Amino acid sequence: MRRTLIALGLLCVLAGAWIGFGHLHYTRTQTAASLGPLTLKTRTQEPVPVALGYGLIALGVVLAGFGAVRR
Q1: Is-contact 65 2, C-beta < 8 A?
Q2: pLDDT tens digits, 16-27
Q3: What are the CB-based long-range contacts (under 8 Å, 24+) for 1-6?
Q4: 26-63 tens-digit pLDDT
Q5: pLDDT computed for residue 14 by the predictor
Q6: Taking the domains of the chain in order of start, what are their residue ranges?
């Protein structure tokens, strides 16, 4: 159980750092105009919010800390 928590914590820290540096994007599709059966759609790539990355880093530190604590 301890090793699992530490490994999961490290994975969260790595994923959070990846998101925090702005390397993860998602594609957003919007309808720009619609005229009868014709539609004009646009696609934009937007970054995942940086706050999510910081939250993952904090969660990873907490998980790794709980895994490292000896009883």
Answers
A1: no
A2: 999 988 889 999
A3: 1/67, 2/67, 2/68, 3/67, 4/67, 5/63, 5/64, 5/66, 5/67, 6/63, 6/64, 6/67, 6/68
A4: 999 999 999 989 999 999 999 999 999 999 999 999 99
A5: 94
A6: 2-68
Number of C-beta neighbours around residue 55 at 10 A: 15
Q: Residue type for 22, please? A: G
What b/e string do you get for 9-35 counting C-beta neighbours within 10 Å, with b at 16 or more? beebbebbeebbeeeeeeeeeeeeeee
Residue 71 has a pLDDT of: 63
Closest CA to 12 of 61, 71, 49: 61
Q: Locate 37 and state its tokens.
A: 């059966």
